[in-house]
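Hi everyone,

Forwarding the result from last night's run.
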Amino acid sequence: MSLVSHIFRRAISQSAARHAVAGPSAVSGHEGGGGYKLWKKLSFFVALPGVGLCMLNAYLKHQEEHGHSRPEFLPYEHMRIRTKRFPWGDGTRSLFHNPHTNPLPTGYED
């Protein structure tokens, strides 16, 4: 078993030394420098439209499932705990409060 291990290690070390001396162009078989064009085209014509389609799909699914109805207010004691008042306004509304989607501790405003 040690003979096989020795041969394997020697082959790896010699191939690594050959690649280090010859440079990356000898490994790939060409001078390089043209690969970025392929990746640039793939990024613009495949990846970005793919991300856009995924975003559109997620948005349409969200609209289909939820629409514009808000959930029923359930006055659970562990939700909307206020140990200190907020330092702005009347102290019960958060900084980015939306009266349609964010209930106060007593319920929705409208």
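Residues 74 and 110 are 15 Å apart (CA to CA).

Cheers,
N.
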